[in-house]
Amino acid sequence: MKPISDLLLAFCTLISVSIFAQNKVKLSSPDDNIVFNFQVTAHSASYSISYKDKSIIHESRLSLKFADADFSDNLHMLTPYFHEGDEAYELIVGKTKKVNEHYKEALIPVIQTSMPKRKLIFAVRLFNDGVAFRYEFPDDKSVHRLILTDENDNFNFDGNTVLRGLFLPGYTTSHEGTYQTLAINQIKEDTLIDMPALFETPDHIFVGVTEADLMDYAGMYLVKHDGIIRSMLSPLPGQTDIKVKALLPHQSPWRVMIISDRIGTLIESNLITNLAEPCKIKDLSWIKPGKTTFPWWNGNVVHDTINAPGNNFVTNKYYIDFCSRNNIPYHSVVEYGLHEWYTNDGAGFVPGPHADVTKPVPGLDMQEVCDYAKSKGVGIRVWVYWSALYKKLDSAFAQFEKWGIKGMMVDFMDRDDQEMVNIQNEILEKAAAHHLHIQFHGAYKPTGLNRTYPNEYTREGTRNYEVNKWGPGLSPDHDIYMPFTRMLAGSTDYHLGGFRAVPDSLYVAQYTRPLMLGTRCHMLAMYVVLENYLGMVCDYPAAYEGQPGFEFIREVPTTWDETKVPIAKVQEYIAIARRSGNDWYVGVINNLESRTINIPLYFLDEGSYSAEIYTDATDVSTQPNHLIKEKKEMKKNDHILVKLARGGGAVIKITMK
User: Fold this and answer.
1) To the nearest whole number, what is the mean pLDDT of the chain?
2) Residues 157, 162, 167, CA angle at the centre, nearest 5°?
3) Per-residue exposure over 314-342, b if at least 16 CB sit within 10 Å of its own CB, e if not
4) Which of these, 622, 623, 575, lies nearest to 596 by C-alpha position?
5) Could you tell me the CA-to-CA distances from 300 to 59, 181, 368 in Å, in that order?
6) What per-residue confidence (pLDDT) applies to 533?
7) Which terminus has fewer CB within 10 Å in the chain: N or C?
């Protein structure tokens, strides 16, 4: 069956052009809390949004600029098509296993009466937790391709609306930096703002702005221009004007606004995957998310008595045996002595002219490593620089599959122009054909492709604990931004598992055995708070085994059946509860102000439960690795009182009796 928009286009071509008399469309969410108004005049198209009868986005102009003409005036609306439907699907990697959510949609044909008489369909879809719109560009037999130089989507918030976001110096970026909180009227003009961005209106309504289903298009950013938040697209390499080139028909990604007066709703939302294309992988039996080592972070520390550490079998055996003992499904082969596991004549990991990811360095037999890991029930993953991989993508993936490699981190992409977007999607598609999972680093935000290509386990796209190897330690005040900003888009990858927390006054940067800020309970909680389907266990074996709290890392899942946010306050604290089977895991992280919170357990079913609770010890101000472990009996109507230290946290495993 053709998509609805295709059917509409076919219908429109059969009738004479008749202008929709009112030139206005009003659409409400299924629960009627969100109202989207769209209108077209001769000189503009615009929209506005209200939530529970409160305006959150005032009249906001929409326009497109093509190489041959602007699509901003002499516009007319044809008869819109209204539709209701359900997004019903299962996620093999996600924060919710089964999704079934209702939506309302309008498909609005808009034509331009002046040359080149371009036509498009403005599609808008409303769920109970947000709004999304996109542009659909039909092939109308007179224009067969598009060259887009600008997409100007305005988001006209009140000037006193507060932004929490990441400001960037340009489009070539790893998306790593320090988040800021500013009222819109305080933001510097024309400075790029990364997405997702969280806005809080004067009425304390939260709006998370991002995009979904980014395929064959440029990545989107925000800026404040002439006092109004608007979109900006990443330009194709080597120039600044052209953003998108495509044959028709084509479509933009969805421009997404997740909306609620309860911040937890934004974190629980499935809106991003609702808007992504359905799964394109037929055989899903091989997709098995889980935790992984990443020895680069700890400095490749090995046992004192190990033979000849390096890019060799004996070093990898040490970590594989650790994984086998401790329920860690994957070991990552990265580098040793600052040289990749594969041959490379470049400097500093940058691929040289003869870099070859199919040829291990002398002394490393990848087949031997993979065979041994398989005998121990452990999968092998590798790290690759993206351009070294991409130049021989097919032969590399074939060789990886032959060895028995299960997946990889693809790193240093640092762009989201249309070319790079297509490269990443090609990597996902071809990796799936060889039963390989992907972890993108130095990469842009997720856009729901864990539904389309569930072999995408996670993405970085944020500053994380890797910086503790060489600079100021990452503060819990940074961590607390993550669930309210970057994580709104999906899986958020950190170098987790540092077990050497110290008081702030004792912190120094260490490339080997990095130190951590915040408490050990804060670190444990990050495994639950972060949506991350490939949780890293980055420290070395002797740092974990026998240490308090490691038993929690051994058992915590990485993908979930259900997610709830029982209590949260933006930039201060958050408790996230995630269900795996019949067990619930609760993670709590705090900023740099100590407090006590009361966590309601309304998300439990009826019955009796046993709760295993890890909290900060009373002496964590000087001994931040100390924790208290206790058990309590719980029921659905109970609360758990948790004392959180400065930079602290807590984790709770709740099991039905």
Assistant:
1) 95
2) 100
3) ebbbbbbbbbbebebbbbbbbbbeeebbb
4) 575
5) 55, 37, 20
6) 98
7) N
Residue-level pLDDT at 5: 53
| C-beta of residue 90 within 8 angstroms of C-beta of residue 287 | no
Beta bridge mates, 62: 45, 153
φ and ψ of 433, to 5 deg: -65, -20
What stretches of 92-219 adopt beta strand conformation (E)?
Answer: 98-112, 119-127, 130-137, 145-155, 162-165, 167-168, 180-183, 192-193, 197-200, 206-212
CA distance 338 to 470: 14
Backbone torsion region of residue 127, taken as left when φ is above 0, otherwise alpha when ψ lies between -120 and 50, otherwise beta = beta
Strands 24-28 and 244-247: unpaired
Name the packing angle between helices 366-375 and 313-325 (round to 10°): 20
Nearest to 596 by CA among 523, 652, 646, 631: 646
Assess whether pLDDT exceeds 60 at residue 401: yes
Residue 254: its H or E element: strand 254-260
Q: Which residue has the tokens 């940058």?
A: 350
The DSSP annotation for 269-302 comes to --HHHHTSPPP--S--TT-----EE-TTTTT---
Query: Following DSSP, what letter does each residue of 140-156 receive, concatenated?
Result: -SS--EEEEEEEEEEEB
The rounded distance, in Å, linking the Cα atoms of 464 and 35 is 38
pLDDT at 6: 55
The whole-model pTM stands at 0.96
- What is the sign of the dihedral through the CA atoms of 308, 310, 313 and 319? positive
Nearest-CA neighbor of 458 among 534, 357, 565?
534
Secondary structure of residue 422 in the 3-state scheme: helix
Q: Torsions phi, psi of 592, nearest 5?
A: -90, 25
95, 192, 532, 573 from 560: Cα distances, Å? 5, 34, 10, 22
By CB atoms closer than 10 A (0-12, 13-18, 19+), residue 449 is: buried
Cβ proximity of 114 and 126 under 8 Å: no
Cβ neighbours, 10 Å, residue 30: 14
Residue type, 569: K
Strand pairing class (330-333; 379-385): parallel
Structure tokens at 633: 């009996």
Name the residue among 165, 93, 105 with its Cα closest to residue 488.
165
CB atoms within 10 A of CB 165: 24
Q: Are 230 and 152 in contact (CB under 8 A)?
A: yes
Residue 360: partners with Cβ closer than 8 Å, 6 or more residues away: 311, 341, 342, 343, 366
At 394, list the tokens: 């097919």
Query: Are β-strands 98-112 and 244-247 bridged in parallel, bridged antiparallel, or unpaired?
Result: unpaired
Q: For residue 249, say if its preceding peptide bond is cis, omega within 30 degrees of 0.
A: yes
8 versus 485: the higher-pLDDT residue is 485
The alpha carbon of 564 is separated from its chain's Cα centroid by a whole number of angstroms, namely: 18
User: What's the per-residue H, E or C state across 198-218?
Assistant: EEECCCCCEEEEEEECCCCCC
User: Beta strand 167-168 with 192-193: parallel, antiparallel or unpaired?
Assistant: antiparallel
pLDDT tens string 165-185? 999 999 999 999 999 999 999
Write out pLDDT tens, residues 280-339: 999 999 999 999 999 999 999 999 888 889 999 999 999 999 999 999 999 999 999 999
